[in-house]
Amino acid sequence: MDSRERMKKILLEKNSADRIPWSFDFGATQGFNPTLLSRYKAKKGIKKPIYEHFGYDVIAIPYPESKGTQELNGGIKFITTIKDPSIYYDEIPDRAEFDAWGILYYQWPTDPTFKNFKPPLALMDDPEEIEAYPEPRLSEESILEVSCWAEMIRNTGKMTACYAGSIYEWSWWLRGQSKFMMDLILAPVTAQTVVEKVKKFTKKLALASQEAGADILAFYDDAGTQSSLQIRPELWRKFIKPAWKDIISEIKKRNPDTITFLHSCGNISSIIPDIIEIGFDVLHPLQPETMDLNSIVSSYAGKIAFWGTVSNQRTMPFGTCEEVRAEVKERMLNIGKCGGFILSPSNIL
């Protein structure tokens, strides 16, 4: 059984395979903080790409490590269409930079791989003005690069994954978290306008990634806190769920074998049935500090595949080698026996 057969059995069929796979990566995300990855490879004398060194079954494309130390996700790149993003801000911090959405970033003081940000739609209150805000465009050169990587990796018997976008997360990154949360209740038309803008672009990115040959479309949409959803479940169902349903339905209509992966941190137990209903194939990370893993697995095994589960708040950063081994063994015995499971840390190391 090669990696493609194994992953189809586990992620698409939610079943057991010849072995339980593991990875430091998750979806289309490199599993190491770039600074840590550089240090780890130097210490161990690793010359080849980390995915090749560890023999991962799923490879993000283009692999982030191949693009430089600051990259975390593989996937099609997108380019800003905004001539001067500074016009959307009342104040520009020193050493500021803008991403393709026009979101302003400035360096975290202690580690350049982490950054603070300011949202470009925070000063807008007119839905028509928000609707007119320019969206990024997909890089044709990057689409070609992803297509070449997809063919290359497929020929090695591995599966490929691309970053394919967000809904809730991008919505509040653009609007600002507190503003977007208030919009959901006080200005629902404004909130819906932001969500529709984000949905339109995420759908475009996802379908282009599918067309380029990615086996797994990896979506990232952190919705939880340590104890609950960030917003009321009924608000998530009203604004966020329909957007996801539209995107996943179109993906599956075009190719039912395309695997859809959702990363959503925190306690999202109240919406897991909705995530399954939407049609996602894989859920990551199942943070053990926030949810009862045994209850979730017993309730949903066979309906959705699980990727993750190893504690990134406790065991990986603070555990002894024996404690890490014990947690890995426990997960493989208790969750792996149910099938549909890839073992990994619950977030970036």
Your description of this structure?
By secondary structure, the protein is α/β, with parallel strands linked by helices. It has a single domain (3-78, 130-345), classed as TIM Barrel. The protein contains 13 helices and 12 strands. The strands form 3 sheets. Strands 1-7-8-9-10-11-12 form a 7-stranded parallel beta sheet. It has a 3-stranded antiparallel beta sheet with strand order 3-4-5, with no helix packed on it. Helix 6 packs across helix 7 (177-186) and helix 9 packs parallel to helix 10 (272-278). The relative contact order is 0.14.
Specify the structural class: alpha/beta
- Report the strand count: 12
> Which topology does CATH recognise?
TIM Barrel
Low-confidence stretches: none
The share of residues in helices is 40-55%
- What gap, in angstroms, lies between the N and C termini? 30 Å
Query: If helices are DSSP runs of H or I spanning 4 or more residues, what is the number of helices?
Result: 13
Mean pLDDT: 94
CATH architecture assignment name: Alpha-Beta Barrel
Strand order of the largest sheet: 1-7-8-9-10-11-12
**How many strands, which pairing sense, and closed or not: the largest β-sheet?**
7 strands, parallel
Q: In CATH's first tier, which class applies?
A: Alpha Beta
